[in-house]
Design the sequence.
């Protein structure tokens, strides 16, 4: 029995019309009201819900919560639906191996199955999760990344080097698809330091005149040090003028300086959802692509909406993903807050501050929530701070939880008492409580963070339950 090939299975031109890029994006959305956007979101949400009811995973999730089809009449009813997270997906995989029952492929004969793209998560927070994409959802996901890059100011004919990982994980592959299909940039998929040695990556940059770097901030900063060790001046011998990555709360100034003053642009997304939000040329926060993503910020403990401006878990509904693995109220467990106020582009989209930490990687000390991923940004104003650190959570014999921050500095460690006192005072001011500080020389946290082997360095060693 014949079945359509990948690009025959959906209308690419219609997808580009529905989720425009470049000038067409601004023409569509500049001046649009929130009411008009809501109407568009509602249309896409109802189509998504119709698909969701066909998926065994959602039938079970919603049925267990007592939800019936007639209970959800519009986007206004979305809060009636339960949220789900990676743990629910992994339970599905365990119960229905090897790929779970959340994709929509269940029960289809081989000749009836559409083309799919299969990847996994990185496994940063546990066992890698299988993720399956249908052609339409996959391509719109790539279009949203390309929209982000072009909105940021990616120049025509740019040379982009990607340090995102490949292999089974999704990240590097869909960034390559976005750039090669929906921009005219020359794309170098160098991957991580394991896939292409750091010294070789630097040589590639110099040979091909790379002017845009994309990837995770920690490794991109490391590459600047590698270049200097080879006698190559970042920003001069390698003319990088734009860095696009997951910047989190790391020091932007230090990363920009390392690459000769390159402009930095942040964006946010996870494997399940694709690109959710991205910085614009104004660099005034990340614009949520609300024509494609419905983002809720919910309280970590109660799952209730937070007041605009307060921090909460990012819970994402992918309005565009109505073919394979619909995503409806997925709790990323990533923390952010909304930026309240108008934006200079007169876009109807809300803005967020980007990734502020993980709620499932949180340490609660004397009633205060501490997010290890946010510590780097707090220490950024210390001139001796290299940007590398790791938090160590422990529990003493009395059951009291403690946190020690191991901080790398460029100054001689012989002067550590003064530096440690500076760090401790700064963290006390910004956290509102005292934490321990241990000062170490540059490179000494690498065995804990695994920065040489991981795209996302570990920032928490949790010894409370060992």
Sequence:
């Amino acid at each position: 029995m014949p079945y359509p090939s990948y690009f025959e299975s959906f209308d690419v031109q219609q997808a580009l019309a529905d989720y425009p890029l470049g000038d067409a994006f601004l023409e569509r959305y500049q001046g649009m009201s929130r009411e008009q956007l809501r109407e568009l979101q509602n249309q896409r949400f109802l189509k998504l819900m119709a698909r969701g009811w066909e998926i065994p995973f959602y039938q079970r999730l919603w049925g267990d919560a007592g939800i019936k089809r007639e209970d959800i009449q519009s986007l206004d009813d979305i809060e009636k639906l339960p949220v789900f997270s990676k743990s629910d997906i992994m339970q599905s995989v365990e119960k229905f191996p090897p790929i779970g029952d959340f994709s929509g492929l269940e029960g289809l004969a081989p000749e009836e199955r559409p083309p799919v793209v299969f990847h996994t998560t990185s496994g940063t927070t546990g066992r890698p999760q299988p993720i399956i994409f249908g052609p339409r959802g996959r391509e719109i996901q790539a279009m949203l990344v390309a929209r982000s890059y072009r909105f940021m100011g990616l120049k025509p004919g740019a040379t982009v080097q990607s340090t995102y990982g490949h292999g089974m994980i999704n990240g590097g592959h869909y960034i390559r698809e976005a750039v090669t299909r929906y921009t005219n940039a020359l794309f170098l998929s160098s991957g991580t330091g394991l896939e292409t040695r750091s010294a070789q990556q630097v040589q590639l940059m110099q040979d091909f005149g790379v002017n845009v770097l994309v990837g995770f901030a920690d490794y991109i900063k490391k590459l600047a040090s590698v270049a200097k060790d080879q006698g190559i001046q970042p920003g001069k011998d390698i003319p990088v003028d734009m860095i696009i990555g997951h910047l989190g709360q790391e020091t932007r100034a230090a990363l920009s300086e390392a690459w000769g003053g390159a402009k930095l642009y942040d964006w946010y997304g996870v494997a399940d959802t694709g690109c959710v939000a991205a910085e614009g040329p104004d660099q005034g926060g990340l614009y949520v692509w609300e024509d494609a993503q419905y983002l809720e910020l919910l309280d970590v403990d109660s799952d209730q909406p937070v007041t605009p401006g307060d921090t909460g878990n990012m819970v994402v509904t992918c309005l565009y993903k109505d073919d394979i693995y619909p995503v409806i109220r997925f709790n990323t467990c990533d923390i952010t807050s909304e930026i309240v106020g108008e934006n200079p582009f007169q876009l109807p989209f809300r803005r967020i501050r980007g990734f502020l930490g993980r709620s499932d990687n949180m340490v609660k000390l004397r009633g205060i929530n501490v997010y290890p991923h946010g510590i780097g940004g707090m220490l950024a104003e210390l001139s001796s701070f290299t940007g590398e650190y790791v938090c160590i959570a422990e529990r003493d014999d009395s059951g009291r939880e403690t946190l020690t921050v191991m901080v790398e500095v460029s100054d001689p460690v012989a002067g550590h008492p003064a530096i440690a006192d500076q760090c401790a005072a700064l963290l006390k001011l910004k956290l509102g409580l005292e934490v321990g500080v241990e000062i170490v020389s540059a490179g000494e946290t690498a065995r804990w963070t695994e920065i040489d082997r991981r795209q996302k360095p570990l920032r928490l060693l949790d010894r409370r339950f060992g």
In short: The chain has a mean pLDDT of 91. The chain has 13 helices and 20 strands. The longest helix spans residues 34-52.
